[in-house]
Amino acid sequence: MGEPLDPLVGGSAEIARFHRFVVQGPAPTDCHIWRGAVSDDGYGRYWIRRDGKQRVVRPNRYALALALGRPLLDSELALHEVCDNPICVRAGSEPLGRPHVVVGTQSQNLAGMAAKGRGGGRGQMWHWSGLDRAARAARSRALRDAVRDGWDEAAVRSALLASDSPTLF
Predict the structure, then answer these.
(1) Burial class (CB in 10 A: 0-12, 13-18, 19+), 60
(2) Secondary structure (DSSP) of 27-78
(3) Burial label, 130 (beta-carbon count in 10 A; 0-12, 13-18, 19+)
(4) Spatial separation of the C-alpha atoms in residues 48 and 30, rounded to whole Å
(5) Can you state the angle between helices 133-146 and 153-160, rounded to 10 degrees?
(6) How far apart are CA 4 and CA 2, in angstroms?
(7) Shortest CA distance to 87 belongs to which of 130, 147, 126, 143?
(8) Predicted pLDDT at 101
(9) For residue 54, how many other CB atoms are within 10 A of its CB?
C-alpha cells in the first residue's frame, strides 16, 4: 500500500500534451472533457513514458495527480463525485465551481455506486446515461467527438441527449 500506482506526473512537455486533450466547458459547473482516446469501458486513455516504457493511465487519475501535486497511492481512487462522467477530468480546487474528480477510497466508490443505483448485482449502469458498457463507451466517444474542435454547446447537448437518459448538465 505504500507504493503509488501512478508515477508522479511527468515534465512540462507531457503536461502540455495532456492539456491539449482537454476541453473546458465555459460555465463554472461544466465538465472538462477528455478528447483523446476512449477505451471500451467509456473511460479515457492517456499514454505516458516512464523508465523507457510506455504505459497507459486514465486521464481522470492523471488530472487528479496533477491537481494534488503527487501520485495517487494504490489505495486512492479518482472518483467522479459531481458529474459521474467517465471522460471528465475536472480535478483539483478551483476558484469557481467545484472539482468533479476527487480522491477517494474503494469503499467511498462502492457507496457512491450504490447511491447511484449501480452495482450490487444490477449491472454497472452509469447514473448519467443508464446505458450498458458498450453504449456508455459510445456515449463517451460521441461526447469526445462533440468537443473535438472546442466546446460546442449544441454538439455537447446532442451527444448527451442521444437517449432518453438524464444528462450531465
Answers:
(1) buried
(2) STTS-EEE-SEE-TTS-EEEEEEETTEEEEE-HHHHHHHHHHTSPPBTT-EE
(3) middle
(4) 27
(5) 170
(6) 6
(7) 143
(8) 93
(9) 8
Question: Which helix H or strand E contains 20, and what residues bound it?
Answer: helix 12-20
Tens of pLDDT along 59-70?
Answer: 999 999 999 989
pLDDT at position 148, please? 94
Q: Please list, in sequence order, all residues whose beta carbon lies within 8 angstroms of the beta carbon of residue 117, skipping any fewer than 6 positions away.
A: 125, 127
Non-local CB neighbours of 93 within 8 Å, separated by 6+ positions: 67, 99
Can you state the angle between helices 59-68 and 12-20, rounded to 10 degrees? Answer: 130
Across 120-134, average pLDDT:
53
Angstrom distances, CA of residue 129 to CA of 43, 44, 48, 115, 158: 14, 16, 30, 15, 13
Side chain identity, residue 141: R
Pairing of strands 44-50, 53-57: antiparallel
Bridge partners, residue 80, by sequence = 101
**Polymer length of the chain:** 169
pTM, full prediction: 0.82
How far apart CA 9 and CA 2 sit, in angstroms, is 17
